[in-house]
Amino acid sequence: MNTADLKQEITSLIEGANDMASLEEVRVTALGKKGKITGMMKNLGQMDPEQRKTAGQELNILKTEIASLIESQAKMLKKQALDERLATEKLDMTLTPRPEMQGKVHPISQTMEELVTIFGEMGFSLQEGPDIEDDYHNFSALNFPVGHPAREMHDTFYLPDDPSETGEAAKKVLRTHTSSVQIRSMANAKPPVKMICMGRTYRSDYDITHTPMFHQCEGLMIDKETHMGHLKGCLMDFVRRFFEIDDLPTQFRPSFFPFTEPSAEMDIGCSRKDGGLKIGAGDSWLEVLGCGMVHPNVIKNFGLDPDEYQGFAFGMGIERLAMLKYGIPDLRTFFEGDTRWLDHYGFDAMARPNRAY
């Protein structure tokens, strides 16, 4: 039994294998059930104990070495094949796409563009902030007292405390509203301030009108003279522009929010005849957003004197606005990723929101 000659023979076959099929043939020839090394190992039983021990050790070493050489050659061949594919398989991204593969703008993206356009023409700037917030910016700075229902686990997604922080800064949550962006933006702002903020928000809820993740748009106006009449005029102009109804009826009802005082909910006119819903002059009302004058405690958290500064704030769900304007019946379908749904409700990439000028 000459293992050195056998090793040299099989090594030459491995090195000569130029594809995975050839290498597999070598593996079977050497290590398969009827392979040369396997056959030699079957003959060990015919040797005396001392010879069997020596020969067995040599064959085990040879088997390990050959398996290692095959594995190395396989890695080299796979890399070579990948390099060849990368060099030959190219996709020219400048080619015109096939008509049936034309993409669509999601209704949420379209609605956000419309909001930015409308409020931008009113002089509001767009601000952004982090999705992961601390307890102070998400709750305390917005006048949510300890024990408020909105802080409960059934409504808020809490994350593990940050060990590098202390106090309220260590307690992390997925933001439950975009109002936290207002607190962060006001830290470096000087009145007068007009801003809107948009983005994802998170709450533990899921049904036909609620999802664990949704989008909000909130606005803030701070100066020394703004009053409730300015808030009403701003929002009346907004809903009439957004729903494209010049004489859209509106009303404001008293409500409660921790961060505004007084607080109100805004309704728009609608008709519910024959089980349908039509926005405009009618015999019914539909709530679309919440608003109010910024609470003095929140003004203080902005670092301002509430005896000198005041302002208004408002907030609305972007999915709700899209559902009302474009007739989408189920909130959950926004996030299911169904391309058929997007083909039906989506927008052409060139369908930009109309401007007033």
Mean pLDDT: 87
In the CATH hierarchy, the third-tier topology of the largest domain is known as BirA Bifunctional Protein, domain 2
Q: Which CATH architecture of the largest domain is right?
A: 2-Layer Sandwich
Order of H and E elements: HHHHHEEHEEHEEHEEEEHEHH
Share in β-strands: 15-25%
Can you describe this structure?
This protein is α+β, with helices and mostly antiparallel strands and 357 residues long. It has two domains: 3-88; 107-345, BirA Bifunctional Protein, domain 2 (2-Layer Sandwich), CATH 3.30.930. It has eleven helices and eleven strands. The strands form two sheets. Strands 1, 5, 6, 7, 8, 9, 10 and 11 form an eight-stranded mixed β-sheet that branches. The protein has a three-stranded antiparallel β-sheet with strand order 2-4-3. A hairpin with a 2-residue loop joins β7 (250-257) and β8 (260-271). It is elongated. 26% of the residues are buried. The mean pLDDT is 87.
Q: Quick summary of this structure?
A:
The protein is 38% helix and 20% strand.
Topology readout:
Blueprint: H1 3-16, H2 20-31, H3 36-42, H4 49-88, H5 107-121, E1 125-127, E2 132-134, H6 135-138, E3 158-159, E4 172-174, H7 179-186, E5 193-202, E6 213-223, H8 228-242, E7 250-257, E8 260-271, E9 278-279, E10 284-294, H9 296-301, E11 310-317, H10 318-326, H11 339-345
Parallel strand pairs: 1-5
Antiparallel strand pairs: 2-4, 3-4, 5-6, 6-11, 7-8, 8-9, 8-10, 10-11
Helix pairs in contact: 1-4, 2-4, 5-10
